[in-house]
Design brief:
By secondary structure, this protein is mainly α. It is built from seven helices and no strands. Helix 5 packs across helix 6. It is elongated, with a radius of gyration of 26 Å. This is HMG-box.
Protein backbone atom coordinates (compact mmCIF):
# COMPACT_ATOMS: atom_id res chain seq x y z
CA UNK A 1 0.00 0.00 0.00
CA UNK A 2 1.21 3.54 -0.65
CA UNK A 3 2.66 5.40 2.31
CA UNK A 4 0.61 8.31 3.72
CA UNK A 5 2.32 11.66 2.99
CA UNK A 6 3.93 13.82 5.66
CA UNK A 7 1.92 16.70 7.06
CA UNK A 8 2.82 20.34 6.42
CA UNK A 9 4.80 20.36 9.67
CA UNK A 10 6.53 17.11 8.70
CA UNK A 11 7.59 18.56 5.36
CA UNK A 12 8.94 21.66 7.09
CA UNK A 13 10.81 19.55 9.66
CA UNK A 14 12.45 17.34 7.02
CA UNK A 15 13.50 20.46 5.12
CA UNK A 16 14.96 21.87 8.37
CA UNK A 17 16.91 18.66 9.02
CA UNK A 18 18.28 18.72 5.46
CA UNK A 19 19.52 22.28 6.03
CA UNK A 20 21.22 21.26 9.27
CA UNK A 21 22.91 18.27 7.60
CA UNK A 22 24.04 20.49 4.69
CA UNK A 23 25.64 22.93 7.14
CA UNK A 24 27.81 20.11 8.48
CA UNK A 25 26.42 20.17 12.01
CA UNK A 26 25.56 16.97 13.83
CA UNK A 27 21.83 16.31 13.89
CA UNK A 28 20.39 15.80 17.36
CA UNK A 29 16.70 15.09 16.77
CA UNK A 30 15.45 16.32 20.15
CA UNK A 31 17.32 19.61 19.82
CA UNK A 32 16.34 20.08 16.18
CA UNK A 33 12.68 19.43 16.98
CA UNK A 34 12.68 22.31 19.46
CA UNK A 35 14.51 24.61 17.02
CA UNK A 36 12.27 23.69 14.08
CA UNK A 37 9.15 24.07 16.21
CA UNK A 38 10.17 27.61 17.18
CA UNK A 39 10.87 28.42 13.52
CA UNK A 40 7.50 26.95 12.47
CA UNK A 41 5.71 29.18 14.95
CA UNK A 42 7.53 32.21 13.52
CA UNK A 43 6.34 31.51 9.96
CA UNK A 44 3.53 33.63 8.58
CA UNK A 45 0.34 32.02 7.33
CA UNK A 46 1.47 32.58 3.74
CA UNK A 47 4.78 30.78 4.40
CA UNK A 48 2.97 27.88 6.08
CA UNK A 49 0.53 27.74 3.17
CA UNK A 50 3.39 26.67 0.87
CA UNK A 51 3.87 23.55 2.99
CA UNK A 52 0.13 22.99 3.28
CA UNK A 53 -0.19 23.15 -0.50
CA UNK A 54 2.61 20.59 -0.90
CA UNK A 55 0.87 18.35 1.63
CA UNK A 56 -2.50 18.67 -0.16
CA UNK A 57 -0.90 17.82 -3.51
CA UNK A 58 0.83 14.81 -1.94
CA UNK A 59 -2.43 13.75 -0.29
CA UNK A 60 -4.33 13.85 -3.60
CA UNK A 61 -1.61 11.73 -5.20
CA UNK A 62 -1.69 9.33 -2.23
CA UNK A 63 -5.45 8.88 -2.49
CA UNK A 64 -5.20 8.28 -6.24
CA UNK A 65 -2.43 5.70 -5.79
CA UNK A 66 -4.30 4.03 -2.93
CA UNK A 67 -7.52 3.63 -4.91
CA UNK A 68 -5.52 2.32 -7.89
CA UNK A 69 -3.73 -0.17 -5.65
CA UNK A 70 -7.00 -1.30 -4.04
CA UNK A 71 -8.41 -2.13 -7.47
CA UNK A 72 -5.33 -4.26 -8.22
CA UNK A 73 -5.45 -6.33 -5.02
CA UNK A 74 -6.78 -9.87 -5.11
CA UNK A 75 -9.12 -11.17 -2.39
CA UNK A 76 -6.19 -13.11 -0.91
CA UNK A 77 -4.08 -9.94 -0.73
CA UNK A 78 -6.99 -8.19 1.00
CA UNK A 79 -7.02 -10.96 3.61
CA UNK A 80 -3.27 -10.64 4.15
CA UNK A 81 -3.39 -6.85 4.42
CA UNK A 82 -6.38 -6.92 6.77
CA UNK A 83 -4.64 -9.53 8.96
CA UNK A 84 -1.58 -7.25 9.11
CA UNK A 85 -3.76 -4.28 10.05
CA UNK A 86 -5.56 -6.36 12.69
CA UNK A 87 -2.21 -7.30 14.25
CA UNK A 88 -1.14 -3.64 14.28
CA UNK A 89 -4.43 -2.61 15.92
CA UNK A 90 -3.94 -5.35 18.53
CA UNK A 91 -0.48 -3.91 19.20
CA UNK A 92 -2.02 -0.49 19.84
CA UNK A 93 -1.76 1.20 16.44
CA UNK A 94 -4.80 3.39 15.86
CA UNK A 95 -6.41 4.62 12.68
CA UNK A 96 -5.94 1.53 10.53
CA UNK A 97 -9.38 0.36 9.40
CA UNK A 98 -9.86 -2.89 7.55
CA UNK A 99 -9.82 -2.55 3.78
CA UNK A 100 -12.91 -3.22 1.70
CA UNK A 101 -12.54 -4.78 -1.71
CA UNK A 102 -14.11 -2.33 -4.20
CA UNK A 103 -14.50 -5.13 -6.76
CA UNK A 104 -16.32 -7.56 -4.48
CA UNK A 105 -20.10 -7.82 -4.72
CA UNK A 106 -21.91 -5.68 -2.17
CA UNK A 107 -24.05 -7.25 0.56
CA UNK A 108 -27.78 -6.71 0.00
CA UNK A 109 -30.06 -4.74 2.29
CA UNK A 110 -31.98 -6.56 5.01
CA UNK A 111 -35.77 -6.60 5.00
CA UNK A 112 -35.95 -3.76 7.53
CA UNK A 113 -33.56 -1.55 5.58
CA UNK A 114 -35.52 -2.19 2.37
CA UNK A 115 -38.65 -1.09 4.23
CA UNK A 116 -36.83 2.00 5.57
CA UNK A 117 -35.58 2.84 2.08
CA UNK A 118 -39.16 2.73 0.73
CA UNK A 119 -40.43 4.83 3.64
CA UNK A 120 -37.82 7.50 2.92
CA UNK A 121 -38.64 7.48 -0.81
CA UNK A 122 -42.29 8.06 0.00
CA UNK A 123 -41.25 11.03 2.13
CA UNK A 124 -43.40 10.05 5.10
CA UNK A 125 -40.85 11.15 7.66
CA UNK A 126 -38.92 13.72 5.62
CA UNK A 127 -39.74 16.57 8.00
CA UNK A 128 -38.10 14.79 10.96
CA UNK A 129 -34.40 14.89 11.92
CA UNK A 130 -32.50 11.72 10.96
CA UNK A 131 -32.57 10.21 14.49
CA UNK A 132 -36.28 10.80 14.78
CA UNK A 133 -36.77 9.38 11.28
CA UNK A 134 -35.01 6.18 12.31
CA UNK A 135 -37.17 5.84 15.42
CA UNK A 136 -40.37 6.51 13.48
CA UNK A 137 -39.44 4.00 10.77
CA UNK A 138 -38.57 1.39 13.39
CA UNK A 139 -41.92 1.93 15.08
CA UNK A 140 -43.68 1.78 11.71
CA UNK A 141 -41.88 -1.51 10.97
CA UNK A 142 -42.91 -3.04 14.26
CA UNK A 143 -46.56 -2.05 13.60
CA UNK A 144 -46.53 -3.14 9.94
CA UNK A 145 -48.85 -6.04 9.06
CA UNK A 146 -47.25 -9.45 8.62
CA UNK A 147 -48.04 -9.66 4.88
CA UNK A 148 -46.11 -6.40 4.28
CA UNK A 149 -43.14 -7.63 6.32
CA UNK A 150 -43.12 -10.95 4.48
CA UNK A 151 -42.93 -9.12 1.15
CA UNK A 152 -39.76 -7.32 2.29
CA UNK A 153 -38.39 -10.53 3.82
CA UNK A 154 -38.87 -12.32 0.50
CA UNK A 155 -37.12 -9.52 -1.41
CA UNK A 156 -34.23 -9.64 1.05
CA UNK A 157 -33.99 -13.43 0.79
CA UNK A 158 -33.88 -13.30 -3.02
CA UNK A 159 -31.25 -10.57 -2.98
CA UNK A 160 -29.19 -12.55 -0.47
CA UNK A 161 -29.27 -15.68 -2.65
CA UNK A 162 -28.18 -13.61 -5.65
CA UNK A 163 -25.39 -12.07 -3.55
CA UNK A 164 -24.14 -15.48 -2.44
CA UNK A 165 -23.98 -16.66 -6.05
CA UNK A 166 -22.16 -13.49 -7.15
CA UNK A 167 -19.72 -13.78 -4.24
CA UNK A 168 -18.99 -17.44 -5.00
CA UNK A 169 -18.36 -16.56 -8.66
CA UNK A 170 -16.14 -13.63 -7.63
CA UNK A 171 -14.08 -15.77 -5.25
CA UNK A 172 -13.78 -18.53 -7.87
CA UNK A 173 -12.57 -16.03 -10.47
CA UNK A 174 -10.12 -14.39 -8.01
CA UNK A 175 -8.43 -17.16 -5.99
Amino acid sequence: MPKRPSTAWGLFFVEHLDKVRASGKAVVPTVETVVASAQWKQLSDAQKQVYKDKYNANLIEFKKNTSKRLEELTPEEFKIENARRQALRAAGKRGLPSLKDPNAPKRPLSSFFRFAQDQRKEGKFASLPIKEQAKAIAESWSKAPEHEKSRYTELARDANEKYKAERAAYLAANP
